[in-house]
């Protein structure tokens, strides 16, 4: 049962990451979807260097926030649960 829970958690985390990346692409690069559509005109985009920088900064900040959240969750758990 634990493997199922872990797999479901991993799937949910992957979906959340996909949504985050799609949001960054839309907000900073004006790319509507990150899905491959097998068409050069749909899969390749001209973007500004300041848009790329902004998107990278947003992704970096999201990573920092995720790391801080993971660290605070780990330190909030009692030592007995961490050992289990």
Automatic annotation (TrEMBL):
Domain of life where this protein originates: Bacteria
Ranges where the DUF6900 domain occurs: 17-67
Protein name, entry field: DUF6900 domain-containing protein
Organism: Tepidimonas thermarum
Taxonomic lineage: Bacteria, Pseudomonadati, Pseudomonadota, Betaproteobacteria, Burkholderiales
